[in-house]
Each structure stands twice: as structure tokens, then as C-alpha cells.
Amino acid sequence: GTFLSTMLWSYTGWDSLGCIAGEVKNPGRTYILGSAITLLLVSATYGLPVVIGVQMQPDLSTWAPGTLVTLAFSGAQWVGWMAAAGSITSNVGMLNAELGTNSRAVWALAGGDIGSDNPECPVQHFPSFLSWSSKTFGTPVAALVLHAIFVSLLVFVDSFALVV
């Protein structure tokens, strides 16, 4: 149960690729190649430390949250720091990816450019101010700022169970 839910949580974001397809050059080729490379890298990133950790401490009943970092520090100090830095970098990357894709979804639900050439297909489920985007880059600024504020407020929630 816990392993499967952790793996599903860790691989989150794959379902959001369509939100930014309009911003990707040659998405048919780019998505397939990028997804294949990313799947290999993500699998190695999760699998390799676990394999090494099991070699260092085979009794899995003694494992607890943070065991991999503890094992890394016991091997060599710099390995532990690299593991901690990798974890932080990974979480920041996941946050940025989620902010980017989710803000684009909010932008679209607020009207965005969807249906602008087809007046019989109005799509607007959120207030129209959330469809405001940068003229220079096309970034959904209002949706991005609102999403960032919402995520920042979730940091102060005491119980992780309420967020999930």
C-alpha cells in the first residue's frame, strides 16, 4: 500500500503534459523523446539509491523515513549532502512543473484563448481575470500568482492528511 501510493505520488505530473502542449515546439516528437528520457532518469533516480541502500542495510524492517539520507551520510559525508541537495532540487523542480501546468489549466478554465475562434464554444468556469497573461511571453500571470499564493498557504497546514 504505502510503496504504491508513494510511487504514484512521486511520478505525479505526467498527467499534466497536455496543459503545456501548445507551448512545445514539435510536441509529437518532443513529448515522446522527452518522456522516454525522463522516465529512464526518474526511474534511475528512485531505483539506484534504494538498491544501494538495501546493499548497505538489508534488514528493511529497520528502515524509517530518512533512512536513505542517513545511510548516505554514513558512507561518506559528501554523499549525504548530495542526497539532501538532490531531494531539495527534485522537490523544487516538481513544484515548478506543477505551478506551470496547473496555472495553464486555470488560465484555460478562465477563458484564455480557448474558443476565441468559435463563439459557439464558450469555455469559462473561473473568473475572467485569471485568463490574463503576459503579452511578451504568454505566461498566465494571474493564474500563476493565484496558484503560488494558494500553495504557499498550504505550507502552513499542520496536518499533511488535510492536504492530500
Description of the structure:
- The structure is a single chain.
- The protein is an all-alpha fold and 164 residues long.
- The chain has one domain.
- The chain contains 6 helices and no strands.
- The chain has helices at residues 2-10, 27-56, 67-75, 77-109, 141-154, 160-163.
- Helix 2 crosses helix 3, helix 3 runs antiparallel to helix 4 (77-109) and helix 4 crosses helix 5.
- It starts with a helix and ends with a helix.
Keywords, separated by commas or semicolons:
6 helices; mainly alpha; 164 residues; membrane; single chain
Q: How is this structure best summarized?
A:
By secondary structure, the chain is mainly alpha-helical. The chain has helices at about 1-10, 25-55, 65-75, 75-110, 140-155, 160-164. It has one domain.
List the helices and strands and how they pair.
Layout (H helix, E strand, L loop, with lengths): L1 H9 L16 H30 L10 H9 L1 H33 L31 H14 L5 H4 L1
Number of helices: 6
Helix content: 55-70%
Which stretches are low in confidence, meaning pLDDT under 50 for 5 or more residues running? none
Spatial gap, N to C terminus = 16 Å
Name the shape in a single word.
elongated
Profile the largest sheet.
none
- Integer count of domains: 1
Approximately what portion of the residues adopt beta-strand conformation?
Answer: under 5%
Q: Compute the number of strand runs.
A: 0
Order of helices and strands: HHHHHH
- Subunit arrangement of the protein: single chain
- Class of secondary structure makeup: mainly alpha
Rg of Cα set: 20 Å
Averaged pLDDT: 82
InterPro entries: AA/rel_permease1 (IPR002293), RMV1-like (IPR044566)
Membrane topology: Multi-pass membrane protein
GO molecular function, one term: polyamine transmembrane transporter activity
Transmembrane segments: 31-54, 66-88, 141-163
